[in-house]
Every structure is written in C-alpha cells, then in structure tokens.
Design the sequence.
C-alpha cells in the first residue's frame, strides 16, 4: 500500500504547487488574451515580487503571507508603467518585436537585481515552515503550502470575478474578441490594456511572494516559472484564464507524479513534451473553451 | 551582386584573415573568434528568421547537436572532422523533425515551440549521463593540432565568409524570392504556387547544418562542454539578437550586429562582472524602440543603399484579418 499513499501524497503536493502555477498562468493568460503579447518578462516580474517581499521581511519582519499585497501593488505599478512606457510605443509592430522587447526587459530586470542584491541564494525562515498537518498516518501537508494554496485560490476566484463580472473585465474581453471594434464601442483600449498588463504582472508578483517562504531566492529564479507559464497558457488555451488556472493545477500534479516515478530531473522535460504535443495536436488548448 | 560588393567584402575579409599575424594575444583572438562565430550563427539564423520571417528561438538545438556530435562521435572513434559532418547531418535531421511540427504554427506559437524543442534536448542531454556525461560534461577533441587559437579564429572568419556568400546567393535566387514571399504573406505565397512548407523546411535544414558547424567549433575551442552551455536558451537568444540588432533580412546585418554586441559585452564585462547580460537587454530594448529594422536596415533605408536587397522586414504591421480576429481566443466566460 506504500505506493498508494505516496501517489496520493504526490497528487496533493502537486495540487498545492499547482495553485501557485495557476496564479502565474492566469496573469500570463490575461496579458496574452487582451494584448496578444507573449510576455517573456513574466518570470522576471515573479522574481521582483519575491525580492519585494524579501526586502519587506528583512526590514520589518512582516511575513510574506501578510506582505504579499505589497508585491502585488509594486508589480502592478511596474506592469502598468512597462506597458505605457515600452509596449504602447510599439503597439503596431509584429509579435516578433514584442517578444524581443520583453526578452530584453527580462534581461535588464534580472541583471539589475543581480547588480543590487548579488547572485547569492537567500532563504527566509518563518515559524510556519516547520508545521505539518498530518492526515491519517501516511500523508502530511506542509502548512505554508496550504496557506499559499488558500490565498492563491481566493485570488484566482477574485481575478475570475473581475474578468467576468466587472466593467473592466467586459472591456478586456471585448478587446480580446476584437481589438478593432472595441475602441468603436467607446473602450479606452490603452487604459484597459495597461491595467490588464498591471494585473497580470501583479499576479506573477503575488505568486512570487507566496513562493518566497518555500523556495530559494536568486536573481534567475523566475526563468523556470516563465517557461512553465508558457506551457500552462498553451495547455489552457491561449488567453483563457480559467483554462490557465486548471492547467496550472494539472501541471503541478503531472510534475509531482513525474518526480515521484521518474525523478525530479525529468519534470521540466515532461512539461515541454506536453507543450509540444498540445501545440501540434490541439493548438487551441485542452481546457480552453474557445479556439486560439 | 555588383562588383563593389566583392570589393567591399575583400576590403573587410582580407585584413580580417591577416589579423593573427599582428595580434598575438590568445585572449584577444578568442574574443575575435567569438565575434565571427556569432556573426556566422546570426547569418545562418537570418536565413530562417530574417529572410523567411520565422522567429526561431531554438537554434541552440542545432548548435548543441553540432557540439555534442563532435564530442560523442569522436569518443566512439570517428575522426573529428567526420564527426563534424555527422553533426551537420544530425542537426539537419533534428531540424526536419522540429520544422515539420513547428512550421505548422505561426507567430508566437512557432517561437514558443522552437524554444520547447531546444529545452527538451537540453534536459535530455542533462538527464542521460551515460550518453552525454550529463552535467559533468564531456570532453571535446581538438579540431586543429596544438589547439591553436589562430586556427580557430581563421576558421571563424572563413565560416562567416561562407555563410555570407551562401546568403548572398540565396538572396538572389528564385528560392530566395520564395522565402521573401513567405515572409511577406504566407497565404498569398501559397496561393501563387509557392510550396511554403517545403521552402521553410529546406531553409531550416541549411540553417541548422551551418549552425551545427558553429557549435562544433565553439565546443572544440572550450575542449569541454555541458548541456547548460551549448544547449542553453541563452545561445538561442544571442544568435537571434545578433541578427536582429544588425538587421534581420539584410545581408550584412548579422555581421554588424555581432561586432557591435560582442564588443559591447566585452567592454561591459569589465564594468559589471556578474551582470554582463544587462547590456544585451539594454541593446535589445533600444533596437526594438528606436531601430526596429536593425542597424544596417535603418542605415540602408536612410541611404537607399543596397537597393535590390530586401529591407525593413518587420517594420510593417500585418493588416487586420477580421475573420481571424473573430476566431481568436477570448478570455472566455
């Protein structure tokens, strides 16, 4: 029965990680949906969120679980200004240029942080880290993951509500459907896109803040999450935010099971194989309701 | 191809070949080798990314296949130069697989798909230590006796010259015009009878084979390779950036881009020891914002030089296609 418990444990761990993945992917999907921008700086934004929370923790001792709104606020401002300052001027350009620009931005942010904080690994310790919740005799859940799961789930629900039930969300969806008709309906495309980019960046930043207690912190930490968020956004159907959320959970579980049965080092490779399979067989994504 | 093009090439490449007579420092020669190596890689990328308009961000795959073929075939007893040839064949094989899947996709999907393939190769190389040595790495044989940096430098210059000549030839061939047609409007090209799938695949095969040579040269200079070095995404982006910076879709753009980028990064390495990629980022952002056609593209547009050469490939946005727009994904209910 040992494999049974370890599988259940792996699925649980996968779901806990997957919630944070989902949050990252929802941010990416919002940006992609509204702007058709594949944001290569998403990982760098996540890393900035981690550093913002880290600095907050080091200076005031506020735990990331209370400090995450700060990361969200900081990243919203950064995202908003990035859109206004860098992306709006090249609006008419092809995807090619936008990809390059966000890649350049990611390099600047990552190396800028490295200049300021150095390339060292950091880790914070909070009392919650040593707490485990046991279910039965075989299965245990690490308390910080459970907290971050709860926060991520609430935020994902809020984001979903904002996109589906507010005036802003309606405007964003209108732009996603037809960016040429949307301004004719009186939508301020620039403003809505800037806010979407801000919210998408904030989602990455908050995910970073929630990852801080359970992860090592170093300037290049965002890279792996950037690649994974591409996988999730494609898996969920590019631009579909609830698809991205489900894809996050699925990817978390798949990675966790891959680690259990094949070893940790294959997890990322399996991500990419899934990615290629989805792109070549069903490019509209598996969990998205509309085609991409 | 006018006569003054040849004269210009002669004025640049003859002195370049004579540099080792003057420069004795191994370090300087290595830097210059890197300049020409990435110029050649950028030129090879330019065939796919510039002329055909397919933004590949996975050229590290072919670079790495070239590097690892040299190391692994030699280890199995094949002579080094034959290993390089085998590497080119293997790179073309991988390009055939990668191309046949990723060329069905367009725009950002294509770029992401090429990244995914390169990353799968990198992770596989990392995770199969019995075959590739994994993260411990594998030794690469010498391509030139005495490991002479001069020989590497000369071969770098020659490779650049060869790829440049090949590009110039393709640019003026019927095939070259097919490629341009694909870049400008794939559907229109298809409609007028260009076999777009075959053209894209062929140019990728050529580009991959050339990139594999570069990978082998690079590996042999370092004598020792690990997956995170030759199959890294940084290699893919550096190759693409070199070409974009100089001017994608222009003949000498990648050469100019490589000279600019490698010189700048060499200078900045001394200022910011750890954060030497910062300058890459700044250069990319500057190019995208202010020189969207690259250095050569912008200058050529201003001066109306190289009239017959294609200019400004990516400056014009595609007109909206209402049907496609309507079909596109939505942040759905």
Sequence:
């Amino acid at each position: 029965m040992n494999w049974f418990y370890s599988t259940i444990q792996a699925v649980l761990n996968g779901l806990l990680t997957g919630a944070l993945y989902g949050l990252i992917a929802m941010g990416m999907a919002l940006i992609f949906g509204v702007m058709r921008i594949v944001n290569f700086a998403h990982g760098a934004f996540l890393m900035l969120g981690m550093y913002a929370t880290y600095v907050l923790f080091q200076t005031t001792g506020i735990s990331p679980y209370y400090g995450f709104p700060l990361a969200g606020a900081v990243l919203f401002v950064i995202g908003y200004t990035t859109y206004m300052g860098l992306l709006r001027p090249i609006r008419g350009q092809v995807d090619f240029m936008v990809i390059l620009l966000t890649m350049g931005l990611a390099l600047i942010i990552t190396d800028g942080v490295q200049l300021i904080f150095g390339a060292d690994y950091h880790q914070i310790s909070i009392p919650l880290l040593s707490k485990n919740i046991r279910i039965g005799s075989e299965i245990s859940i690490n308390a910080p993951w459970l907290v971050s799961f709860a926060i991520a789930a609430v935020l994902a629900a809020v984001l979903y509500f904002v996109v589906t039930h507010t005036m802003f969300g309606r405007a964003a969806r209108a732009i996603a459907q037809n960016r040429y008709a949307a301004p004719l309906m009186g939508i301020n495309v620039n403003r809505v896109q800037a806010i979407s980019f801000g919210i998408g960046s904030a989602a990455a930043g908050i995910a970073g803040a929630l990852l801080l207690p359970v992860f090592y912190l170093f300037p290049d930490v965002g890279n792996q999450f950037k690649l994974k968020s591409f996988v999730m956004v494609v898996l969920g159907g590019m631009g579909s935010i609830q698809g991205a959320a489900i894809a996050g959970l699925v990817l978390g579980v798949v990675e966790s099971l891959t680690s259990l049965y094949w070893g940790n080092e294959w997890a990322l490779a399996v991500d990419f194989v899934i990615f290629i399979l989805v792109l070549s067989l069903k490019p509209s994504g598996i969990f998205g309701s509309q085609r991409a | 191809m006018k006569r003054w093009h040849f004269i210009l090439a002669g004025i640049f490449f003859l002195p370049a070949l004579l540099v080792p007579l003057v420069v004795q420092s191994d370090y300087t020669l290595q830097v210059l080798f890197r300049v020409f190596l990435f110029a050649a890689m950028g030129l090879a990328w330019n065939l796919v990314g510039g002329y055909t308009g397919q933004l590949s961000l996975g050229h590290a795959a072919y670079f790495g296949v070239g590097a690892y073929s040299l190391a692994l075939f030699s280890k199995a007893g094949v002579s080094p130069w034959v290993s390089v040839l085998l590497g080119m064949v293997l790179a073309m094989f991988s390009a055939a697989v990668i191309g046949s899947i990723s060329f069905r996709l367009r725009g950002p999907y294509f770029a992401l798909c090429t990244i995914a393939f390169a990353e799968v190769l990198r992770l596989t190389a990392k995770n199969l230590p019995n075959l590739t040595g994994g993260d411990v790495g594998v030794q690469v044989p010498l391509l030139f006796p005495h490991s002479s940096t001069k020989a590497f430098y000369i071969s770098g210059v020659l490779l650049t010259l060869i790829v440049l000549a090949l590009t110039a030839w393709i640019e003026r061939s019927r095939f070259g015009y097919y490629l341009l047609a694909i870049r400008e409007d794939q559907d229109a090209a298809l409609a007028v009878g260009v076999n777009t799938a075959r053209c894209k695949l062929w140019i990728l095969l050529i580009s991959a084979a050339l990139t594999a040579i570069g990978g082998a040269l690079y590996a042999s200079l370092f004598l020792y390779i690990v997956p995170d070095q030759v199959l890294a995404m940084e290699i893919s982006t550096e190759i693409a950036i070199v070409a974009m910076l100089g001017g994608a879709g222009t003949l000498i753009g990648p050469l100019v881009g490589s000279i600019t980028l490698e010189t700048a990064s060499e200078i900045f390495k001394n200022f910011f020891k750890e954060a030497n990629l910062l300058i890459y980022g700044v250069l990319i952002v500057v190019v995208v914002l202010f020189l969207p056609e690259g250095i050569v593209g912008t200058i050529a547009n201003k001066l109306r030089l190289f009239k017959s050469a294609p200019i400004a490939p990516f400056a014009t946005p595609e007109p909206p296609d209402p049907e496609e727009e309507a079909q596109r994904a939505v942040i759905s209910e």
